[in-house]
Automatic annotation (TrEMBL):
Name of protein: Mg2 transporter protein CorA family protein
InterPro entries: CorA_cytoplasmic_dom, CorA_TM1_TM2, MgTranspt_CorA/ZnTranspt_ZntB
Gene3D superfamilies (alphabetical): CorA soluble domain-like, Magnesium transport protein CorA, transmembrane region
Cellular-component GO terms for this entry: plasma membrane
TM region positions: 265-284, 296-315
Cellular localization per UniProt: Cell membrane
Entry similarity comment: Belongs to the CorA metal ion transporter (MIT) (TC 1.A.35) family.
Length: 321
């Protein structure tokens, strides 16, 4: 049964009335809304702080028989080159599953659960936990694809031997920040999925809440999500290195273009210096061979033209012009 506006007290009553009943629900990520759910799952103060914190990285923990998972749904705003993170906390026991998230993330996650009620009925809370993890990892993969497209667009000019302009450099810097932020999500999530995949393969035990929750039916599905998480973490590192290389390449191209400009300026300065020197010599107010004579003027002009042409050809051959 899927219902709205059901209180935690009503859920507790249903669970106590029938031991075969299992329940999942969404809780807004506020202290007031979380309080009844935290009491039902017997969370301590540290666990509650972890659930409500905006800076807590993804983590996996157990509080008594309750499995606590902190994760995030991520998306990428290509226009602002900004990573958006919606914090998500999942509380799970063998009969209860609670999703603690803000409204946008909560709507996406509960919709995924509602679309798979048959799977939840058959495989219980473990299947719900798998669906939530799969949704979070899928958001990482989708975000990576958007970031790769943005990085490809930025680096296209480098293949044309053109350095990035100032606007593109700022975009590259913001994109690099977003990739670093994504790495702070994808790397811990990969480790979490590795732990959960291992727990699913272990035999159930009273002193092992993870194995007790996951053993059996979801082993293959957990391994599949684990593979996706590992791939997302590796791709994030690769994209980070690619953008770093592109940034260094852009600096190198800027240096090369600056050197080319300096060569051209130096070559033209040398060419212009020759007629300047000769005309300065001819402009002295002292007699010299050809002084006051048309032949002297022609001789000076010929020397200037020959010197300029010689330097021009020389610099041209050396690639300075």
């Amino acid at each position: 049964m899927v219902a709205a506006d059901v209180t935690v007290a009503e859920i507790t009553e249903q669970l106590e009335g029938d031991e075969a009943t299992r329940a999942w629900w969404w809780v807004p990520r506020t202290a007031e809304a979380l309080r009844p759910t935290a009491e039902l799952f017997a969370l301590d103060g540290l666990a509650v702080d972890d659930v409500l914190s905006d800076r807590e990285p993804p983590k996996l923990d157990t509080v008594g028989r309750t499995v606590l998972l902190i994760g995030a749904l991520v998306s990428f705003d290509a226009g602002a080159e900004e990573l958006r993170r919606d914090r998500v906390a999942v509380l799970a026991t063998d009969r209860m599953l609670a999703v603690v998230a803000d409204e946008s993330a909560g709507a996406a996650l509960t919709r995924r659960l509602a679309e798979n009620t048959t799977v939840l009925s058959a495989d219980g809370v473990a299947a719900g936990l798998h669906l939530l993890l799969d949704t979070m990892v899928h958001s990482e993969t989708k975000t990576l694809l958007a970031m790769e497209d943005a990085a490809d667009e930025l680096t296209t000019s480098l293949f044309d031997d053109k350095p990035m302009n100032r606007a593109d450099q700022l975009r590259a810097f913001r994109l690099r920040q977003s990739i670093a932020a994504l790495r702070r999500v994808s790397a811990p999530m990969a480790e979490i999925l590795l732990d959960l995949s291992g727990a699913a393969a272990r035999a159930a035990a009273d002193d092992d809440p993870l194995a007790d929750l996951l053993h059996g039916g979801v082993i293959r599905r957990m391994q599949d999500v684990c593979d996706h998480a590992q791939h997302a973490a590796a791709e994030t590192n690769t994209l980070r290195e690619l953008l770093s290389s592109a940034y260094e390449t852009n600096l190198a191209l800027s240096d090369v273009h600056l050197n080319v400009i300096m060569k051209k300026l130096s070559a033209w300065a040398a060419i212009i210096a020759v007629p300047t020197l000769i005309t300065g010599f001819l402009g002295m107010n002292v007699p010299y061979p050809g002084f006051g004579d048309g032949q002297g003027f022609l001789a000076g002009l010929t020397v200037m033209v020959l010197a300029v042409l010689t330097l021009f050809v020389l610099f041209k051959r050396k690639g300075w012009l």
